[in-house]
Amino acid sequence: MNPQESRGPKPKKSRREVPTSTPAPAPAPTPALLSFSLSPETVRVAGGYGISFAGSVTCDVGLDAAAPPGGVRVDIFLVDAKLFLLPGTTDPGYADNPKLVMSVVIAESEAKASKQLDYGGESLGDFVYEARLGTVTKTAVLHTIS
C-alpha cells in the first residue's frame, strides 16, 4: 500500500476570501474665491470730514464651483481701518488692521451669495475691503463722497 493512500485524501488548503471594496471617492476640492464686489461702489454721504455717517451696501461673493456640503464661509475684512468707525462702536478700528467685519456663507450647491455690509466713519475717501477664502484674496473699494 502506498503511504500516501493510508492517510486519506489530502485536505484542501483553505483560502481566505478577502472582500474587495471600492475606495471611497476623494472629497471634492474646496472651490476657490472667484469674485467679490460692493454695490454701489460709490456712496454719497452728508457732511464731510469730522461728520459721522453710516449706511450699507450689498456685498457679493462668488466661487469658481458650487459649495460642498456644509457650505463655504468667505471672510470680509476692512483694510487700513484708521478713522473708520464700525457700526455700533465709538472708537476707530486702529488696533485690528485688517479688521474682520463680517462673513458671507455660500450655501451647499450654490456658487454665490450676497449680504448687506454696514459701513460708517468720520472721513470721506476710499475704504478697501478684502474677501478671503483660503489663500485667495479679492479686493473691492467703497468710495465715500459728499
Topology:
Elements: H1 3-6, E1 33-39, E2 42-44, E3 53-63, E4 72-79, E5 99-106, E6 112-121, E7 125-133, E8 136-145
Parallel strand pairs: 2-8
Antiparallel strand pairs: 1-3, 3-6, 4-5, 4-7, 7-8
Describe this entry's structure for a reader.
With 146 residues, the chain is mostly beta strands. It has a single domain, classed as Immunoglobulins (Immunoglobulin-like). The protein is built from 1 helix and 8 strands. The protein has one helix spanning 3-6; strands at 33-39, 42-44, 53-63, 72-79, 99-106, 112-121, 125-133, 136-145. Strands 2-8-7-4-5 form a 5-stranded mixed β-sheet, with no helix packed on it. A 3-stranded antiparallel β-sheet has the order 1-3-6, with no helix packed on it. A hairpin with a 2-residue loop joins β7 and β8 (136-145). The radius of gyration is 30 Å and the shape is rod-shaped. The termini are far apart.
Task: List the keywords.
146 residues, mainly beta, Immunoglobulin-like, 8 strands, 3% helix
The percentage of residues in β strands lies in: over 45%
Percent helix range: under 10%
Cross-sheet strand order for the largest sheet: 2-8-7-4-5
Briefly note the structural class of the backbone.
mainly beta
Main pleated sheet: 5 strands, mixed
Number of alpha- plus pi-helical segments: 1
CA-based gyration radius: 30 Å
CATH topology: Immunoglobulin-like
What is the first-to-last residue Cα distance? 116 Å
CATH superfamily: Immunoglobulins
What's the number of structural domains? Answer: 1
In the CATH hierarchy, the architecture is Sandwich
